[in-house]
Structures are given as C-alpha cells and as structure tokens.
Amino acid sequence: MNRTLSSALASLPANLLGSKTSEFDSDSPWHDRNLGRAEDRSAPEHLFTPVGYEAGYRYPLIVWLHSHASSEFELPNVMSQLSLQNHTAIAPRGTERISRDEEVFTWRQTPTHIDLAAQRVEQCIGIAKQIRNVHSDRIFLAGFGTGGTMALRLGLRHPEWFAGVISLNGPMPTGFSPLGRVNHSRGLPILMGSGLESETYDLDAVYQDVRLLQTAGLKLDVRHFNAGDELRTPMLKEINSWIMNFVCSGSATAQAI
C-alpha cells in the first residue's frame, strides 16, 4: 500500500475499518421454491430463467436484494426491465418481516441480520448453480435501497464471491466495520447509482459515500439518474450495460463458491 493511501485510510472512522482482523469470518422464466423453515436459517427465494435459456451456455448470475417493504417476488419486474435474455437471476427474501398483514421484508444492519443475509445469498448462489448453468466468475450482487446497502455490505465483506456489486439508491452501510476487509476488496468493481431527486439518499450523502470509497482505494463507478426514490427502468438498463461490459471484456473474475 502506498503512503498516500495509508495516510488516507488512517483518517477513516474506526467503525468503518474495524480491527486488522475482521469481526466476521471470512419453462416460464419464473421459478420459485422453499428452501426450508425459518428456524433452519433458510428462507424462500425466487429464481429467474432467461427467455430462450440455453443449457450449454454459462450465464452471468445476478443475485438481487429487494427494496424495503418488498420481497423476493419483485425479481420478475426487475428482470423484465433489466434484460430478459442476458442473465439468470435469483432473489433471496429479506431478513426481517415488517408487517403483520403483508409478507413484506427488509434488510436490517445488525450482526445477526448481516450474517443471515450472507447465508441466504450464499445459499441462493448454490441453488442457482444447481438448477441453471451459471458462470462462476460472473456472479454479481445487486440491490435497491436497503437491498443496495446490504449488497455493499456483503460485497465488501465477501469480495471473493462476486465479480461486481451494484447499489441503487443504497447508502454505504455504517457500523460493524463495513470496510473491515478493505485490503481484499480493492479489486472488486462497484457500481453506485442514485436518483437526483432522492429524498432518502440526497446528493450530499452520495458524494460523501463516494469520497469515502475512493479514499479507501476501491474500484468505483458512479451514475446519476433523473429519478427520486423509485426504481426506474434506466437504472436497471444501466446494470445490464455495466455487467455486459465485463462479460464482453472477460474481466469478471469472482472466485467460485
């Protein structure tokens, strides 16, 4: 690490970097199934199969973390706007139910929920590989809102799992050392997108997060969209373009899990 970067990292808040050792150990298009009961730390997921699926082709995999007060069943709408042919995708259910009347969920940023989210993502990757032909070096983690924040958290925690991480309108997580493995994360491509009129993630907050990640030496692309706090088609089209750029260049290098 060069002296400039070492000095910059020394100025970052301790709760972001953590200690030297991380506190964590390191043929319809739609198909859904139940992984098991909640007490087994498993949860339902939703799997997307691309239109015209060819079993002999290894597809990029998008693991989608849904938005706040939603569920894994937002995946069909997401993929219908992102791409119906280029990727297979799977969405785990959020870690906490937030309504007694509706099955809607969110992603909480506590150690227990972070661990549970990581386990669900890992399970989903395994399921997708069992059911569909997935390219192990082209696994991308993406999410919107609280799902985007959790995507950043898990991508920085387990960079070896992913070829890239995408967060749309999802602020950088705070607390519990999100940059605890920063030395291992610098080769991980990150795409951050935000709505110019967002009330929950305004431009000042976006720029603060961008400065933080750049100071940490992370590989970051930033996009702004004419949107507020809603998930818009141009955001999803940008995800498709960003991923396909890696696929076509052959630069996606996630390790198999």
TrEMBL record:
Q: Which domain of life is it from?
A: Bacteria
Q: What is the lineage of its organism?
A: Bacteria, Pseudomonadati, Planctomycetota, Planctomycetia, Pirellulales
Query: What is this protein's record name?
Result: Phospholipase/Carboxylesterase
Which keywords are on file for this protein? Signal
Q: Name one GO molecular function term.
A: hydrolase activity
Q: Which InterPro entries match?
A: AB_hydrolase_fold (IPR029058), Plant_Biomass_Hydrol_Est (IPR050955), PLipase/COase/thioEstase (IPR003140)
Domain (Phospholipase/carboxylesterase/thioesterase): give its ranges.
Answer: 109-243
